UniProtKB/TrEMBL annotation:
This is Ribonuclease H. The keyword Magnesium applies. Its cofactor is Mg(2+). InterPro entries: RNase_H, RNaseH-like_sf, RNaseH_domain, RNaseH_sf, RNaseHI. It comes from Mycolicibacterium diernhoferi.
Amino acid sequence: MSSTEDPVIIHTDGGCRPNPGPGGWGAVLRHREHVREMCGGEPGETSNNRMELMAPIMALEALKRPMLVHLHTDSTYVRNGITKWVFGWERNGWLTAAKQPVKNVDLWQRLQAASAQHRVEWFWVKGHSGIADNELADVLATRGLQQALAL
């Protein structure tokens, strides 16, 4: 990966109605002139945090080769988890500082593995603040929820 490489710009979102409850996730991937929209969901009992994690997992797993990625999320849980907390959790055998099992460990491990395939820079963005691709990711998450419920 060269430093002049164009990054893949990804915006992700996820949520449930109600929380916990059925959920959806969405992702917008942009690379040069290419745009890909992705969404999915869970019709059963899930959580906002699980859906917020699924969006970057699915986006990163969709990339076919190692890339420089600028990943934007409105979830501080996702950004702090992957940039700070996972290192301690992994060192402690996936236990929190309070010696409790880490919630969503399956998805944290999957996100770690997906991130390791790329050079990912993580950005937090304020949700519903007019950032077009963040708003689109929110629309896609809602679509993913609706599609999951329709199945």
